Amino acid sequence: MLHDADVLIIGGGLAGLTAGIHLSQENVRVILIEKHTYPQHKVCGEYVSNEVLPYLQQLGITVDELNPSRIERFLFSTVAGKTIESELPLGGFGLSRYKLDDFLYKQALVAGVSVIQSQVTDVQFDKDQFTIYTSEGRTYRSKLVIGAYGKRSSLDKRLQRNFILNDSPWMGVKAHYKADFPDDLVSLHNFEGGYCGLSQVEDGIVNACYLTNYRSFKTYKNIDTFQQQVMSQNPFLKDFFARATPLFEKPLTISQISFAKKQPVENHILMCGDTAGVIHPLCGNGMAMAIHSAKIVSELIIAYFKSQVPDRQLLENEYTRLWNHFFKKRLTTGRLVQSLLQRPFIASLLLRSLQLTPALMPLLIKQTHGQPLTASSISFETR
Ligand SMILES: Cc1cc2nc3c(=O)[nH]c(=O)nc-3n(C[C@H](O)[C@H](O)[C@H](O)COP(=O)(O)OP(=O)(O)OC[C@H]3O[C@@H](n4cnc5c(N)ncnc54)[C@H](O)[C@@H]3O)c2cc1C
C-alpha cells in the first residue's frame, strides 16, 4: 500500500514537533500539519521542568542558545499573601513558546519533517490506513497518525471524543511584562477563583499567566478590572501588576480548558501531549509531559516499523499502558491539588502544614513531575 507518509502528525506544538524530529531522525517519513504559522505566542506559563533536558540533548536540541532563565526555586502565596518557598528538586527553565516552538519547527525542517500549514478537518481509518482531510480540500494517506493538536479542537467534535460534550468553566490569560523579578524563581499566587504564575522567560522578560473560572471573570467585563479588583486582593499580584509594564498590546486568552479524562488512543489515533490529557497548570508540567509522550510514542512507532511491536493492536495497547504508567497518577494528583487550593480555608491549612513540615513540599512537587528522561527510560511489552 502506498502512503504519502509513514506517520502523519496533526498539530505542531511541543508534542507534535518533538515526535516529528525524533521519527525523522530514525528515517521514518513524517508529514506534520499545523494550522498556524510560526512563531506564535501561546497561553502558557512557559516554565519547563528540567526532566526533558537529557532527551532533548539526545535529539540534538540545545535550548541554551535561546538564553532561557534557569529556575531553581518555587514560591506559593495564598489570597491573604501568606507564602511558602521551596527548592525545586529538579529545577527548570523559562522560555517563551514564541521562541521554543519556532526553534523546534526549524529543527524539524532540518530533520526532514515535511511541515504543511493547514488545518486538519477529518481523519478516517479504513483498511489499515488513515486518510486525513484538510481545510484546503487536500487529502493525505499514512500508516499511522499521531494526534498532537492540543487541549481542544474542532477535530475532537468530529472524532466524537467524550470530553468535548461538556463545557468547561476554565479560561487562561497570559501576557509578557517588563518588571523586576528574580530570574531563578517560579511563583504561584492564589486568588479567588483561580491562580496566577509569575516567572522569567528569556532576556529578562516576565511571564504572567493565570487560570480562572469564566463565571467569576465575566462579571468584571474586562481583564484590567478583573486584575485590579479580584487578583490584586493577593498582595503579591497587586504589587506585581502595579509596577510591571505590559509588553503585549493586550493579553492572550483561551477558554474552555478542560481537565476531563481523555483516552491516549482513539479511532486508532495515538494521542500525544494535551490531546491525550491536560494536567492542571499549577503543577507546571504540561510541556514536559507533551515532550515525554512524544518520546514514548516515537520509540514505540520505531519499534513497530522494525517489527519489534508485531501489530497495530499491540502498538495501541502498549502506548495506552505506558501513557497510563507515566502520566495517570500525575493527572490525578494535579486534580486533587487544584481542588484543595480552590478552597481558601483548606489552602491556608495546607500551607500551615507545609510550613511546619518543609520536607513535604519537594515531595508534593515530585508527585506531579517525572524523572529525567534518559534513552532507556521505557521498556516494551510486545506480547
Ligand atoms: C494557563 C496555562 C498555563 C500553563 N503553564 C504551563 C507551564 O508553566 N509549564 C508547563 O509545562 N505547562 C504549562 N501549561 C501546559 C502547556 O501549555 C501544555 O501542556 C502544552 O502546550 C502541550 O503541548 P502540546 O504540543 O500538547 O499542545 P499545543 O502546544 O497546544 O500544540 C497543539 C498544536 O496543534 C495545532 N492544532 C490544533 N488543531 C489543529 C488542527 N485541526 N489541524 C492542525 N493543527 C492543529 C495548534 O495550532 C497547536 O500549535 C499551561 C497551560 C495553561 C492553560
From TrEMBL:
<dbReference type="Pfam" id="PF01494">
    <property type="entry name" value="FAD_binding_3"/>
</dbReference>
<feature type="domain" description="FAD-binding">
    <location>
        <begin position="4"/>
        <end position="312"/>
    </location>
</feature>
<dbReference type="GO" id="GO:0071949">
    <property type="term" value="F:FAD binding"/>
</dbReference>
<dbReference type="InterPro" id="IPR002938">
    <property type="entry name" value="FAD-bd"/>
</dbReference>
<dbReference type="InterPro" id="IPR036188">
    <property type="entry name" value="FAD/NAD-bd_sf"/>
</dbReference>
<dbReference type="InterPro" id="IPR050407">
    <property type="entry name" value="Geranylgeranyl_reductase"/>
</dbReference>
<protein>
    <submittedName>
        <fullName>FAD-dependent oxidoreductase</fullName>
    </submittedName>
</protein>
